[in-house]
Amino acid sequence: MTRYRIIIAGLCIQAAAIACSAAESSPPKGVVHGEGAAQGAGPDARDAAILNALTNLVMERLEQLVPSRDFSQFATILENAPAYFESYAVVGETHLNDATQVEIEGRLLEANILADASSQVLRTYADPPRVVLFIVEKGGKRPPDEAARLGAAERKLGDALRKARFDIVDSDTLREDRSDETLSDLETQAPEEIAAVGRHYSADIIVAGHAAVTSEPTVPGSNVNKITTDLSLRVIRAIDGAVLAEPATQAIVNGAKISEGANQALQDAADKVFGEVMSASVIGMVSTQAGDAVTLTIDRLGEKERLDSIVALLQKLPGMKSVETAYTSADLAKLKLSYSGRMGTLIDRLSAAKFNGFHVDPHTVMDRAIMASIAAP
Fold it and tell me: Which domains does the chain have, with CATH numbers?
């Protein structure tokens, strides 16, 4: 992908500093270094070179988060690059041939970039991520005759993600094929094992973790209890098992009734991690997609009218930009699709579609290539 270098002149560093001080975020992960340049040798040129360096650093981080994407959608982020630094300083400066070059050392607010980039992507994508979500709650006891159900943390986080238009596969669905013990064991497995479960449900992301609840009197002999929830999650990319984020937090509630306090503490903890989970999930979905090209090969085609019906369906799907017939015969058709949606949605729609006298069976999916067959209804 083309690496952009942006030189913006005519802006003063005082305005950049105001934007920087206005940004509030969680602590940055580390120090970054970059360079910037601008024409001229005066104070204005120096300010422009600093802004150029900050913009370059934000661009590089966006490239790492969302490779091979259209960066015009991130124009607002790039125009406000200084706001994504907790602090920065000039550590080197040179002047040559009526140009100013600076070296910058700064603390990048990666959480802010992640949140704003994911929010922008979510607004422009036809389909949100499909997420497998399961949180094992430890410390509470359930009566033997009571059926397993979603815990307070999972329910709270799942509802928040659904409101953000995420497609959620929760523990209730997982329990259709697994016991509580199996699900509890799965949470502790290696990311690759958990990712395989996600792929089974055509998911982009898996959010797996546990919540531990403890309680103790606030003071000896008191009937008011300090109820503490420790929530730890892993956000895992289904395609390769990569761990995208590991949100962890603690929530404390004081109350006389432990069960009510525990329920509230679990919900509070879920609220705290929602932003990081959402951001990592969106960016994780986008980073697995290599452009918009999809190849669909259909065998056992038969009549041409069948292909016409399939093409008509595809053209109506959200995120479908174009459908091109690359090859067709009595037995085989190869279509080239320009599709910006989620692969799972495309496969689901093909599988569920009811055509006149036949249906499509997508039996093999390799990256963005789909092999399907015509089958009887």
Answer: 13-121 (3.30.1660.40), 126-287 (3.40.50.10610), 293-375 (3.30.70)
